[in-house]
Protein 1
Amino acid sequence: MRPFALRSALRAIPRTPRATPIASPALSSALLVRPFSSTLPTLKKNKHGQGAKSPKQKIRVTEDDEAGAADAEGAGEVVIEEVVEKAKGKMEKAVHWAKAVVFEGVERGRGRVTPAILDSVRVTIPDTPGTVHLNSLASVTVKGNTLFVEVWDSASLKQVESAIHGANLPGISPQRMGGTTLKIPVARPTVEQRAEILRQLSQTTETAKTQIRTARTDGFKALGGRKANGTDGVQKLVDEMCKELDEQMVLAKKEFEKA
């Protein structure tokens, strides 16, 4: 067949129309390119405000805060209790000391002789800081109305004798017996001596009250001031201890009146 006839035959064959491509919506949106903008995007504000916490976060924070406050409050109660107990210990020590001295003073006013008469004696030893109790250097015994002080080291006899004189105990005047012994005759106290003993007991009571007030001051400082929590408890102890000492002195005066 001639070329011309072949081309004519091909043109006579009906052609199938091309299918128009259908674009996918997802693909179309993916291929879309947004136009460039020089304006910064505006962020949607949190309805709770900048830096605000969601209700759930607020609840969590509130619970934590309350727990922390409870812990702090509990710790504060422990601190207050410790401070009050410490102050109470100091005050009780002062009261016990004063009551012991008052008791022995009353016994002395009655004319009774006991080793406790020399309990207030403190001895100064060379090259030794502070003072030491007489019982650390000697033994004290009673025979009738006489005290005998047996010094364990003869080198300390002079210091012990000076300390007994320096204590200014009414009617007490030591006498040497040998190189280690002091003899102290104790006569029944006179009216003047009983008055002096009573005066010394009153002074002892006031000294104890001063120690109690010092413990109160230390307690107030530890609690954070006079108006801080827990100071009422400390002041209550002060009132009770001072009242106890006053009552003790009232009884002592009555006993001296009987003597």
Protein 2
Amino acid sequence: MRTQHKFTQYIRNPQSAPAPDDIEERRMNMYRDLLFANLSNMLGDNFPVLKKILCEESWIELIRDFFSRHHSNSPYFSEMSQEFIAFCQSERCDSPESKNDFPFLVELAHYEWTELVTAIAEDDDISQVAIADPLNQTLTLASTAMPLGYTYPVHKISPDFLPTEEPEQPTFLVVYRDTKDQVGFLETNPTSHQLLLLFTENTGNKAIKTINLLKDIAKQMNHPNPDTVIQGGLEIIKDFIKRGILVHRVN
């Protein structure tokens, strides 16, 4: 057991943990380098923009920090991307090196992760029915769509666009998978983002028809002409339906 513990500690953090005495050094180094390379390559594939905007040294330092300090809740290598997000959100700030991180690093990583999650999300369209009259049907958010809100315009981040200060306005997006199983994103505004959040909760026995949902919104806005809100909302909703973001699901 002691050998196994020393083996694990050395593999995770060879700079501070000694290698086991009873395992050949060449073999230990091979295990160490291979495991780290596999992790780095996998996360690089899942977070391509993040890797692209970091220099090689910064990328390796970030992955090494994750590998050495984060204790995963899942034993599956395939779930390391989710573990990496958890690390970035709650543990990375404890590292002295985090002072050099881009201010949008956590949000960018989360955005790239949502693209991955959406790509592999189970599609429950077997319980969906056609939407012929959206105003008089109960709609909800598809299982392959996710409304998002960020401080930074993460969908625009690239080596040529690396903002250093918070924008005046937040960014709202919806990541979705269309009927051809292609993942896309749509930039939304605060109103349509709030609308999507309402549809997210529009499920089960609490679900109400779209017309009633839009009337409630108009009432909350104290709008002098509710029909304007309803018609404007309907056009947005039709686009969401076309993209597969909203569905009518049989309970």
Protein 3
Amino acid sequence: MDSNQPILMRSRSSVGGKVRGFFQFETSVKVICLIIIFGYFLSYFETVADALIVTPGYFMPPLVQIWTAFTFCFVEKHLWEVLVDIATVALCGKLIEPLWGSLEMMTYFAVTNFGVVILTTTYYLFLYACTKNPLILFEVHIYGLAGYIAAVCVAVHQIMPDHLIARTPIGNFTNRNIPLTLFLVAVFLWLLGLLEGRYPTMFLAGIITSWIYLRFIQRHRNGSRGDYSENFAFVRFFPIVLQPFVSILVNPIYYTCRRLGIIKHTPVPPATSNTLPLSSVSISMGGVDPYDMERRRQIALKALNERLSKATDSSRSKALPKSFPQSTIKSSAPAISINIPTTSSAASTSHESLIKFPEGEQNKNQLP
């Protein structure tokens, strides 16, 4: 019984640490997580769940259940989906909320989920118009945070696009590859019958909605809107070999929206002439938040420090041979001092030299 006490104490301390870690999140993150858990328990009541989730046939006249556009994202019917949703919201609270703030994170949550339900419902209505299958209108249900998971992946791609996750035989796997990879995984699992068809549909809608918001709409603290950097272009979600073909498809849509005034492009200001004094030169990067730049700088410094520390440790281990003693032998007996008078041949003045002996040999070295 006594031998199990350390294990129980460690388990209790780990559980207590996780509970304390949960309460360290911002209020917005905790509220979303608690509502998701509550929505999962409500899913066991079929009548209540049907009143909270989106059904395409009931989302249009004459039965316009408009409130479901704001409640569908909090309902989940599978425990693993609840765990994935909570992990995603927690990741957003740790990585994105310190950079954007609580208000912007909640705005992003609301905008992306509303855009997901609009795009997904429109897709199923279009599918019904093509197939005339009434089951699409009344048997398909839209719920969960699949679209918001995609939105978080897109936000991570915007913040740290070149962060290396793994090295593969076909190239480096970075944050910019996460959205498309997860979408393809969702489609593959749907083909195997392990996921419902609404999951990859909502995931793709989340990618499109979040990219449009971050690219053209999001207002930054410096007063600018959107992120027009080349690294965040839509073609960057795809492999390099596919980017020219994707550009052929998306560029006409982009230019059409610009001509119609739907999208207002903010051009990057021209570079300042280098003939001006250095104190008067200011570099302005359109669509780039200085807080975002500072965060990327901190991430780069952290990675550099880790590499330098690893290189220093490896160089030290290589510099010392394996046979090099790691510690010196110290005598256990304290040393004592004996004053011995000596004479110098060059001078008649006597001097004293200090000789130290171990305490155990004191009697052997006494002078006669």
Protein 4
Amino acid sequence: LMTTTTGASPQPTRTGVIRVCQGLSQGFMMPMIHGLLSKWAPPQERARCATYILGGLQFGTMIVLSCSGVLASSSWGWPSIFYFSGGLGLFWVVLWMLLGANSPEAHPFISAAERQFIQRSLPSTARDNVKMAIPWRDILTSGPVWAATLAHIGQNWAMWTILTEIPTYFNKALNYNLSNGGFLTAMPFLLMWIVSFPLSYIADKLIIKGITSVTASRKIWNTVAHWGGAIALIGLAFATDSNMAVVLYTIAVTINCCIYMGFNVNHLDLSPNFARILMGITNGLANV
């Protein structure tokens, strides 16, 4: 991100190259997260673990949206937004190098009891030193994998539409500048982040108590996220009052947190040992 400021208007080609490199490097993020979750998240805690981690996407969005206006108007100007974001990324790298580990077996700080609990809860997950052949044919001919892929495509399409088109809609159709207040822009993502925690707890508890099966749970929460958001966006198209439009926009974004208990964690259910591969496929196709 920080290098983006060096390749701005004078050399657009350099900027384009930097952005492509950013995209390529970020492409590893989601598969790696699911690879780690497959080693760390007990089945009865998958929704919560995935939510705690993936919720960071919304938390980061909220922080940057809240601070961008202040940073851009500072003496550092708009490049400070990139320096700030890149600096946070470097800070995270330091923390990860000090505190992170690929698996419980490799972590130097967790207790023996916690390590044993995780290992006992994941008996079918291969250890780090075990190499497994990737069953490409089974993956590519799996109906559930393609269902997760379609859900992921729909999710990315809707979310990028919200991020790129909703501000224009507010400005052109409702004569309302959504970017006037940084907090107002960030508020839906803040609510999405906050609401995701109790809902993920409920999702896991319903499975533990046998009220819902894992399959039913994933389908229910994914339906709430996508259908609920779709209804809010349809209502937004007919809104004539800017306040009501903001409410519907906030609902559409907030309710989307249910994807963490839906398709976004389903890769771990389908194949813990190849969850990173499955996420690489669905996320890659969803970003095309």
